[in-house]
């Protein structure tokens, strides 16, 4: 089967997976996706990795359009995603309403599962928040850093630590079995990121790529986007 190829931030993986059947019905094409830290996905496109479309942060899509790697007129907002906390499904939920709450929750965790703190949106933010809270050095040995949020959340689900916690995009938490979304970060520490999609200038299947973007962003898929963790 012919496929449309994607380079995408991990935040969109669950949503794309949910659209594979309707996309195949509409176009006859499958979806071949690579999902990971947004910075790494952007660099793959720059390095020549074949892709018909990309789903990355709004800021990165704008840069790639300036670099003539994405068609500017094709860029469409998919939705906003919160960076949030995760716990194993069998563990009590945690509620953080203030920076003080978040500091205590993170200090009490014996393992903190996060995505790449240099190349991923959520991982970069976690590193910033730990500095902001003044506990970066204190918890450094407890950070469990993985290439992307999806991997970090799978590892959290399998963790044998007594009191582990995770922090990544809400969409990646929702898409992972064995863990639960435990709430957004508190005021002053929050991060809401707009994700956008665009057809690449080297797309082998530009029409089908545009059709997939229309599916991802269409009004009739609003419920699916919300279930996957995207907001308007």
TrEMBL record:
User: What Pfam families does this protein's entry cite?
Assistant: SBP_bac_11 (PF13531)
Q: What is this protein called?
A: Molybdate ABC transporter substrate-binding protein
Species in which this protein is naturally found: Bradyrhizobium canariense
């Amino acid at each position: 089967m012919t496929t449309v190829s994607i380079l995408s931030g991990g935040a969109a993986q669950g949503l794309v997976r949910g659209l594979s059947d309707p996309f195949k019905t509409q176009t006859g094409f499958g979806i071949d996706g690579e999902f990971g830290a947004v910075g790494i996905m952007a660099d793959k496109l720059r390095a020549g990795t074949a892709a018909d479309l990309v789903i990355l942060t709004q800021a990165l899509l704008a840069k790639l359009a300036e670099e003539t790697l994405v068609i500017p007129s094709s860029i469409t907002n998919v939705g906003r995603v919160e960076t949030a906390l995760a716990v194993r499904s069998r563990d009590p939920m945690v509620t953080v309403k203030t920076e003080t709450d978040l500091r205590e929750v993170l200090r009490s965790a014996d393992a903190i599962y996060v995505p790449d703190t240099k190349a991923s949106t959520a991982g970069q933010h976690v590193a910033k928040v730990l500095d902001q809270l003044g506990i970066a050095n204190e918890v450094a040995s407890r950070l469990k850093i993985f290439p992307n949020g999806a991997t970090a959340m799978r590892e959290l689900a399998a963790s044998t630590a007594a009191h582990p916690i995770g922090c990544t995009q809400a969409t990646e938490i929702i898409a992972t079995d064995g863990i639960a979304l435990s709430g957004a970060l508190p005021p002053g520490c929050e991060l809401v990121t707009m994700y956008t999609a665009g057809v690449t200038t080297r797309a082998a299947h530009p029409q089908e790529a545009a059709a997939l973007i229309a599916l991802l962003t269409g009004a009739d898929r609003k419920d699916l986007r919300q279930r996957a963790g995207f907001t308007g």
